Each structure stands twice: as C-alpha cells, then as structure tokens.
Automatic annotation (TrEMBL):
This enzyme's EC code(s): 6.1.1.20
Keywords: Aminoacyl-tRNA synthetase, ATP-binding, Ligase, Mitochondrion, Nucleotide-binding, Protein biosynthesis, Transit peptide
Record has RNA-binding as a keyword: no
Family matches, as Pfam families: FDX-ACB (PF03147), tRNA-synt_2d (PF01409)
InterPro entries: aa-tRNA-synth_II, aa-tRNA-synth_II/BPL/LPL, Fdx_antiC-bd, Fdx_antiC-bd_sf, Phe-tRNA-synth_IIc_mito, Phenylalanyl-tRNA_Synthase
Reactions catalysed: tRNA(Phe) + L-phenylalanine + ATP = L-phenylalanyl-tRNA(Phe) + AMP + diphosphate + H(+)
Leading EC class: ligase
UniProt domain Aminoacyl-transfer RNA synthetases class-II family profile: residue ranges: 68-345
Subcellular location: Mitochondrion matrix
Name under which the protein is recorded: Phenylalanine--tRNA ligase, mitochondrial
Length: 440
C-alpha cells in the first residue's frame, strides 16, 4: 500500500522510452484505449501494460475477481456500485487532491506508470473519491484496475484490482443520530456472530481526529467504520465452508493504527485465516479537505480500500497472481458465477532460469522496477519471478555490476529451453538498447 513504498527517484533519461513499437501511434504519441496521447521525458507506460488496459477482469462473469466483487457489493447492497471509471488520471487527482505530500515515494517514475507529465495510470481507487462525493453519492463502492510498477513474483503484478468504499453523513445532530442508530444495529448483529475483534482506541495522540471535527462526531464515525468493516470481514471470511470460522474457532479480526495522507484517524484491518494474520485493507475517517474539494463540506464520513487479488488468492487457494490473467480453459472453466470454490491446480510445468550480469551506465539509472518492466514487456506472463542475485561496485572504476536471475515458467504449457533462450536474448538487447548496459 502507498504508505510502505520506499524507493525515491527522479525522471529517467531519454534512452529508455521506446514504447511506440507495438501501438499504432504517430511518433511522439502513444495510443491507449483508442486515443492518442503525447509522450514526454517521463513517459514509462509499456506496451505490455497498454495491452491489458481493456481487459476488465473484474467485469467478467464467473471470474474470481468478479465473484468477490459481487460478494462485497451484495454485502453493501444499499450502496451505489460503480465500476467503469477510466484508469487514466492526472497526477494531481491521484496524489495532490488527496493531500499526498510532494515527496511521497508513490509519485516516483520508478513506482508509477506515466503517460506523460500530466497523465498517469491510477495507482489506487481512492483517486475517484472527490468526483464520486461531488456527484452527490453518500454511500458507494467503486471497483477498478489499478497500476503500480513492481517486482516480479507470485504475489506481485503491475495491475491489480481494488474496491473502494465510502459512506458520509450530515455533520450535524441528525447525521450523528443516524450514525449512532446504525452503530447500535451493527453492534447487536456482531454480538451474536462468531467473531473476536482485537481493537485499538479510535482516536489517540498518534492517530488524531481532525482539527475541524468535533471529537465526538469523529469517534462515532470511526466506530461506524469499524463495525461496518467487521461485518464485511464476517461475510468474506466467516463461512465454515471456506476454511473460515467454526463453532470452536471464531473468526479473528484485528485493528491496527495506520497512516494515510487522506484519512485521520486511519486504520488497517487484519484477519487471522488458515494460521496467518493477513493484511486486508486500509481505512479511516475521510480528510475534510477531500470533502471540501468535493463541495460536501457539511458532511463527514469514512472510506476504505481493499485489494481483490490478495483476498481472492486466499479464498480460492490460487497460488500465483498471474493465473487471474490466464485465458486457459483449465483455469476459467473451474469457476461458476457467484460461488467461491477451491482452485484445483492443473499440472505445473517445469521452470527454467536464466541469469544476466551486466555493468550499468552511471548516467542512465536502472531501477529494479525498470528491469522488471523490460522483462514483462518481452516475456509477458512467461516469467514467474525475478531476483537480483548480485550487486557490486568496482572499487577502482566505481562502476556497478548487477546480476539478475529470471525464472521462466508458463502456467499453461511446457516452455522449451530454446524458447527461453530466445526471450532472454531479447531481454538482453532491450537492456542494451534502453539502458546502455554492458553485458559481462
Ligand atoms: N488507497 C489506499 C491504498 O491503495 C487504501 C486506502 C486507505 C483507501 C485508506 C481508503 C482509505 O479509502 O481510507 O493503499
């Protein structure tokens, strides 16, 4: 999630932006979802990513992401359900409008995909909060694909899906009466349920209510957020059929103090499931600045955002995040609409790893995410993981040498060594061409 990103960077140099090869765009432009956009020195969106933009996995009937989304939507049946907003947003909307600081690592070109300086792929569904609140909706869910440059392994993919949920109330006595009544109703429901909740205080010195909020109002809203999400956790993880709670082992949920630029107080939720604590979502009391920008200053409320892949991998026992993108019938035919079932793995094909060692150029930065994007662009979903196995700086010349191990494996068929060699050669020539590396 946004709070844990570490890498800081700056716009990359000229050499790496070779993106027009697989799209029908004029020079200096890139075609995305049928429209052409100018590129500039920070453009880093790749053809592999552009090709996936129209896929909309969360809208495909019986796809696990669609089923999970429907489960959440049916839990929040009286909320508006949105799912068709464009992934192309301005960096201003993605970050500034949500009070992200100027130096937030999520803004770096190493971490996010930019079409150009003024347009990027959304990195989270929170980007739409202002617009949805402005449209007058006071309780809503929004499902969408989000994009982050990342490493390559079984649980990271540069595209994943989030559900954002929010509810706002009139910031007055009548609104707070509504919250208190809803809290009483939810508390009553949860008291009868098979769930144990480890809580943290709603508001503390390190997780304060906002200066413009009456602390009592903020407290009531934070409580509503927690009760509402506890009952969602019960819907998602509480059923005995999926390895969840049983009469002698209730569902365990714990709340953790957190920080997000656009909420205060802020929380994370973890669920104890099949022997492990799993981080499920981020949430909090919406920053008043967001509601002011949306022209609903007279309201206050809460929001949360959760990642669908992580939850679906757990509930369906799906071992590799690439499988969500599989078009293999052995994957797709396993699932039926509106039911969560256990994934039956079909044969696992042999893997084959290839190493590449090279000297980097001092004047062309090569971030690990740049390396991974080259690999994804050439190898697509044939790559299972990428690891840096060596890094060293020559004491005399001060040059840096890196060695990466790329593990190739198809999920659908056997990959021959010749094919893997061929892909590896393409990876190498892209590295030479875009980053000027010198193979060792
Ligand atoms: N947008 C956050 C992320 O992707 C998740 C999140 C946290 C959403 C807190 C929220 C929220 O609505 O209130 O990491």
């Amino acid at each position: 999630m946004h709070k844990t990103r570490l890498s800081l960077s700056f716009p990359q140099s000229f050499a790496r932006r070779r993106i027009s090869s697989s799209v029908n765009a004029r020079p200096g432009f890139v075609e995305i979802l049928g429209a052409q956009y100018p590129t500039d020195s920070i453009t880093n969106i790749t053809p592999a990513i552009i090709a996936k933009l129209p896929m909309r996995l969360h809208a495909r009937p019986a796809h696990p992401l669609n089923t999970l989304r429907h489960l959440i939507e049916s839990h929040y049946s009286d909320f508006a359900h949105l799912s068709s907003l464009s992934p192309l947003v301005s960096p201003f909307k993605n970050f500034d409008e949500l009070s992200f600081p100027q130096d937030h690592p999520g803004r770096a070109v190493t971490d996010s995909y930019y079409v150009n300086r003024d347009l990027m792929l959304r990195t989270h569904t929170s980007v739409h909060e202002v617009d949805v609140f402005r449209s007058g909706k006071d309780r809503w869910l929004l499902t969408a694909d989000v994009y982050r440059r990342d490493e390559i392994d079984g649980s990271h993919y540069p595209i994943f899906h989030q559900v954002e949920g929010a509810r706002i109330f009139p910031a007055d006595v009548s609104g707070m009466k509504e919250v208190a009544e809803d809290n009483a109703r939810l508390r009553h429901l949860l008291a009868k349920a098979n769930i144990v909740i480890e809580d943290v205080p709603h508001i503390t010195a390190t997780n304060p209510s906002q200066p413009t909020h009456d602390p009592m109002y903020s407290e009531l809203v934070a409580e509503n957020l927690k009760l509402s999400l506890n009952s969602l956790m019960l819907t998602l993880f509480g059923g005995p059929g999926i390895g969840g709670a049983t009469p002698d082992a209730p569902l365990r949920v714990r709340w953790i103090e957190a920080y997000f630029p656009f909420t205060s107080p802020s929380f994370e939720v973890e669920v104890f499931f099949r022997g492990k604590w799993l981080e499920i979502l981020g949430s909090g009391v919406v920053r008043q600045a967001t509601l002011d920008t949306a022209n609903v200053s007279n309201k206050l409320g809460w929001a949360f955002g959760l990642g669908l892949e992580r939850i679906a991998m757990i509930l369906y026992s799906i071992p590799d995040i690439r499988l969500f993108w599989s078009t293999d019938e052995r994957f797709l035919s396993q699932f039926t609409d509106k039911a969560i079932t256990t994934f039956q793995p079909y044969s696992k094909y042999p893997s084959c790893f290839k190493d590449v060692s090279f000297w980097t150029r001092q004047d062309i930065p090569l971030h690990e995410n740049d390396f991974c994007d080259v690999v994804r662009d050439v190898a697509g979903d044939l790559v299972e993981d990428v690891k840096q196995i060596d890094s060293f700086c020559h004491p005399k010349t001060n040059r840096t040498s890196l060695c990466y191990r790329i593990n190739y494996r198809s999920m659908d068929r056997s990959l021959s060594n010749e094919e893997a060699n061929e892909i590896q050669l393409q990876v190498i020539s892209r590295l030479e061409e875009q980053f000027g590396v010198e193979i060792r």
